[in-house]
Design brief:
The chain is α/β, with parallel strands linked by helices. It has one domain: Rossmann fold (3-Layer(aba) Sandwich), CATH 3.40.50. Helices cover about 50% and strands about 15% of the residues. It has twelve helices and nine strands. The strands form two sheets. The protein has a five-stranded parallel beta sheet, with helices on both faces. A four-stranded antiparallel beta sheet has the order 1-2-6-3. Strand 1 (about 25-30) and strand 2 (about 35) form a beta hairpin. Helix 1 (about 5-20) packs across helix 3. The longest helix has 17 residues, at about 5-20. It is globular, with a radius of gyration of 20 Å.
Length: about 300
């Protein structure tokens, strides 16, 4: 198998050609996965390979901070065998970012710039990340365990997935915007950007600045008075820097505008209720959420999606 860098360079060339001109369909390949860039749905694949669309992947649905990673980690703790597909962040790095930057393979770590580039991709492919999933084929030897993908967001992606992945199951993790923001402020994921050093101001002064920073991020009108009070108390106790609150608040706000979680969940209830499980990670601990996910996976017949 070649290195990930070599994979990215191959994929960049193929996808950029496809999006910039009427180029032939190309295939990005490695030993355990292929992506037929812009390929027609249902196109023939070689013997021993199958389209992901014809299988029964479990697709996690939820915005940043919902608890998807914790749920997946919980599967491993429970000893539930599963096969994780490359995640949303990986496929964005491989497929979307280079294609929307003329083949530039340098990393994009700024979340706001990533939002801008993924929006440009959706202008060409309205199904967004779900369309990339439709280009994937896998060797039949990978069919030994349930396939899991993290994850899809928004009504456009979910609508495409419902229509084109008839055997897929959807595991939706809901949580309030306020809870997601607090998790983002405290989880210390390098991808979210560097955290500032905690302020030495007393909690009373911090509380006033937190409110101002939340207002600057456009979040005050999305919080009830009780939510605001509880959030400020929590971040003040944790001594979160006000600059971090504003920076992460802007991420949460931009994501909420681009990927409406309520609209996505409503679409699944309306069009795929029989293959959707919805949980609230603020009302269940991580083990319970993982248990519900394991239960959904156990309900999938080994022959689901295969014909």
């Amino acid at each position: 198998m070649t290195t990930d860098k070599a994979h990215e360079e191959l994929l960049v060339g193929y996808l950029t050609d496809r999006m910039m001109a009427e180029a032939p369909v190309h295939t990005y390949g490695r030993d355990d996965l292929r992506i037929e860039i812009g390929g027609s749905q249902g196109a023939l694949v070689e013997t021993g390979w199958s389209h992901l669309m014809g299988q029964a992947p479990v697709i996690l649905v939820g915005n940043t901070g919902a608890g998807k990673t914790s749920a997946l980690d919980g599967l491993s703790v429970l000893g539930v065998a599963h096969d994780r597909l490359p995640g949303r962040r990986e496929l964005t790095d491989w497929c979307i970012l280079p294609a929307t930057r003329g083949g530039d393979t340098s990393p994009v770590t700024d979340r706001h710039e990533r939002f801008r580039l993924t929006s440009a991709f959706r202008d060409l492919y309205p199904g967004g990340m779900a369309e990339i999933l439709s280009w994937i084929s896998l060797p039949d030897t990978r069919a030994n365990h349930p396939l899991v993908f993290d994850g899809l967001r928004g009504a456009n992606e979910l609508g495409f997935a419902v229509d084109n992945f008839p055997a897929a199951r959807f595991f939706v993790i809901r949580v309030t915007l306020v809870t997601r923001l607090f998790r983002l402020c405290t989880r210390q994921d390098p991808f979210d950007g560097p955290q500032l050093s905690a302020s030495e101001a007393p909690p009373e002064a911090l509380a006033r600045e937190y409110r101002d920073r939340l207002g600057a991020a456009g979040l005050l009108e999305r919080m009830s008075a009780q939510e605001l009070q509880h959030f400020i108390a929590a971040v003040a106790t944790a001594r979160i820097d006000p600059g971090d609150v504003e920076a992460r608040g802007r991420i949460v706000m931009e994501e909420a505008l681009k990927y409406d979680a309520d609209e996505a969940a409503a679409l699944l209830r309306r069009r795929a209720a029989d293959r959707t499980v919805i949980v609230d990670s603020a009302k269940m601990d991580a083990d319970a959420v993982a248990g519900r996910l394991a239960g959904l996976m156990a309900s999938i017949s080994p022959s689901a999606g295969k014909g």
